[in-house]
Amino acid sequence: MHKLVTISEVTQRIVERSKKSRAIYLQRINAAKLTEVGREHLGCSNLAHAIAPCSEMEKENLSGMKKENIAIVSAYNDMLSAHQPFASFPPLIKRALAFKGATAQFAGGVAAMCDGVTQSQPGMELSLFSRDNIAQSTAVALSHNMYDGAMLLGVCDKIVPGMFIGAMKFGHLPMIFAPAGPMESGISNSEKAKIRQEYAQGKVSREKLLKAESASYHSSGTCTFYGTANSNQMLMEIMGLHLAGSSFVNANTPLRDALTEAAALKLLELSPQSENYMPIGEMIDEKSFVNAIVGLLATGGSTNHTIHLIAMANSCGIKLTWKDFDELSSITPLLCRMYPNGSADVNHFHSAGGMAVVIKELLNVGLLHEDVNTVMGHGLSRYLKEVFLEDGKLVYKNSIEKSGDTSVISSIENPFDIQGGLRVLDGNIGRSVIKTSALKDKDRVITAPAKVFYTQEALKEAFADGKLNHDFVAVLPYQGPKSNGMPELHGLLPSMGALQDKGFYVAIVTDGRMSGASGKVASAIHLSPEAKDGGIIGKIADGDMITLDCDNGVLSIDVADEVLATREISLPDMSQNMNGVGRELFSNMRRLVNSAQDGATIFESVGEESC
Questions:
Q1: Would you call the peptide bond into 529 cis, given omega within 30 degrees of 0 as the criterion?
Q2: Are 287 and 22 in contact (CB under 8 A)?
Q3: DSSP run (H or E) holding 398
Q4: Three-class SS of residue 386?
Q5: Would you say 386 and 397 are in contact if contact means Cβ atoms under 8 Å apart?
Q6: Torsion over CA: 554, 557, 563, 566 (sign)
Q7: CATH 3.50.30.80 domain extents, the chain
Q8: How far is CA 412 from CA 76, 296, 347, 365, in A?
Q9: Could you tell me if 362 and 294 are in contact, meaning their C-beta atoms sit under 8 angstroms apart?
Q10: How far is CA 356 from the centre of its chain?
């Protein structure tokens, strides 16, 4: 156990660790800062190409070199429910800006895959790598240097982190993220999970399962459980990249539309032509990232962000480590209960006071940095507001003082747990992350024999054959980024959850990921080094005793080091993971990607890029 720290101490260590790379980053964006509209330097032929399809009024405004031109980068597609509402956003943005004499252009789209569709499918092996692809696509969209700011339209798992990484390479521009908002609540998440487990046990039909799933995911808008997508929205608000109070306003409502228009106008207030020029690369700093980690821990957010936040910070010269997460977790209370950490969803969270109440609770005891820049202005206290639509106009009012439903949002005085929802585990197997916020006390410390599986399907088959009715730790090596792209292994949970409900002590150890909606089964994930890098997880054999101890931060195997040293690393046949559904196109990423604890990214650190 490490000694308790303060957020100031953790922040200062990050600042010291990042001093060289952050200075290089700030020097680069300072050199790119605008003193005129971005398109002013373009030649006539360049500009003619850029404005050719515009209306006559837009051409006049763009040629006048006086008013801002805003880029729209969107993850719209109409298969992914969270992004389908973005279809209507560009016209809203363009109309709002036109009234101010400014313009907007749809600069580019980025990939937007749905992890809910690809769970347990081969396409899931592209999911994590899509983040860096999205970062590159965002950079391509902004590369024309036509813009004085950007609106980034994204919600889901890899999309917001990817857009952020790409945006930070244009850190001299002001930018704002605009979410689509969640769908309204459907069938309860606990009922959905129950039916999934019953289906895994053969107790209900596929038709009943589909009916339950469709009652949960039933319209456009973000899924309502608190997984990676909604953790993204929390992060964007607590980092000051959303308008205050906007993250969890339902999709396709008048208030949602008004917030989208207001976000566009906010960019004009932050542009180089305004008196309050605030480029995103300067606005976001070390304190912003500490606030993000504390928010993640206090709300019981997705484990995926122990990867994403490191990669996001790296993109602007800030170096985070898993130790930062672990130390902050030791002093951050768990304030929220949302599925999978409870029965409520994000709509219940928003109704109980949402982000404003959480931020207020944490600010009151010094667990967040107040002195940060945001799109709302200086100071995180600007986010202690609720937003309403009155007579067609946005109105901000002070938020409620305390939670409106203490079963969803608690308080500093009576938290759901005195520590945050994530822990880092260390031991002779390696270093991993575990989500603790949804674990029962009896599942926090488990010692049981290993059972090694190389695929989710192999475990499901063993479960169906009745071979897993005992205590065990499921070990799944070769699921890391260098092996097969580090897919989420959410398909394990119905079987493992059913075994847990029968009274067996079960857990998971893997160098892969779990879904942001996971948490009931103790899962030591993101194990580094991964099997493909020679990690000990590749030497574990059936019957080896494994201890997973969340209370003391330990993950160990009861096998002597000299015995492990003589064992051969298992080498399963991975050829079937190298092709199909486009996996051939990502082979270079598998070769170049670094470890999960370094962000699982192909991008080099600021200041260390290859010549």
A1: yes
A2: no
A3: strand 393-398
A4: strand
A5: yes
A6: negative
A7: 422-598
A8: 38, 15, 22, 8
A9: yes
A10: 20
User: In this predicted model, what pLDDT tens digit does every residue of 43-84 receive, in sequence order?
Assistant: 889 988 989 898 998 888 888 888 999 999 999 999 899 999
Which position has the token pair 């008048």?
A: 254
* Pairwise CA distance, residues 552 & 445, whole Å: 9
Dihedral pair phi/psi, residue 334, rounded to 5° = -85, 115
Low-confidence ranges of the chain (pLDDT < 50): 1
Mention every residue, 6+ apart, whose C-beta is less than 8 A from residue 56: none
Q: How far is CA 50 from CA 41, 99, 144, 149, 498, in A?
A: 13, 21, 9, 16, 58
**What's the rounded Cα separation, in Å, for the pair 13 and 56?**
54
Model pLDDT, residue 209: 62
Closest CA to 266 of 93, 39, 76, 75: 93
- The number of angstroms, rounded, from the C-alpha of 116 to the middle of its chain's C-alpha atoms is 15
Q: Tokens at residue 258, please?
A: 């008004």
The edge-to-edge listing of strands for the beta sheet with 69-74 is: 103-109, 69-74, 149-153, 175-177
Phi, psi of 370 (to 5 degrees): -80, -30
Residue count of the chain, please give it: 611
Task: Give the count of beta carbons closer than 10 Å to the beta carbon of residue 214.
Answer: 11
Hey, what's the torsion of the CAs at 360, 364, 368, 374, to 10 degrees?
50
Cα–Cα distance measured from residue 268 to residue 255, given in angstroms and rounded to the nearest whole number: 21
Looking at domain 422-598, its CATH architecture is 3-Layer(bba) Sandwich (3.50)
Task: Give the phi and the psi of residue 508 in degrees, each rounded to 5.
Answer: -130, 140
Could you count the other beta carbons within 10 Å of the beta carbon of residue 193?
Answer: 21
Enumerate the β-bridge partners of residue 452: 475
Distance CA 152, CA 39 (A): 20
Strands 377-378 and 149-153: unpaired
Q: What is the pTM of this model?
A: 0.94
- Both tokens of 408, joined, read 């969803």
Cα 420 to Cα 298: distance, rounded to the nearest angstrom: 5
> Taking Cα atoms as reference points, which of 174, 352, 381, 396 lies closest to residue 291?
381
- CA proximity to 333, closest of 268, 416, 276: 416
To the question of whether residue 611 is assigned a binding role by annotation, the answer is: no
How far, in Å, CA of 389 to CA of 254, rounded? 8
Maximum CA extent, the chain = 77
* pLDDT at position 2: 55
Could you tell me if 175 and 280 are in contact, meaning their C-beta atoms sit under 8 angstroms apart? yes
Question: In this predicted model, what pLDDT tens digit does every residue of 110-141 receive, in sequence order?
Answer: 999 988 888 888 889 999 999 999 999 999 99
The token pair at 412 is 């500093």
* Contact assessment for residue 355 and residue 247, using Cβ atoms and an 8 Å cutoff: yes
Is there a binding annotation on residue 223?
Answer: yes
What DSSP string runs through 195-207? HHHHHHTTSS-HH
pLDDT value at position 165? 98
Cα 390 to its chain centre, rounded Å, is 33
Within 10 angstroms of residue 330's Cβ, the number of other Cβ atoms is 17
The rounded distance, in Å, linking the Cα atoms of 370 and 544 is 48
pLDDT given at position 76: 97
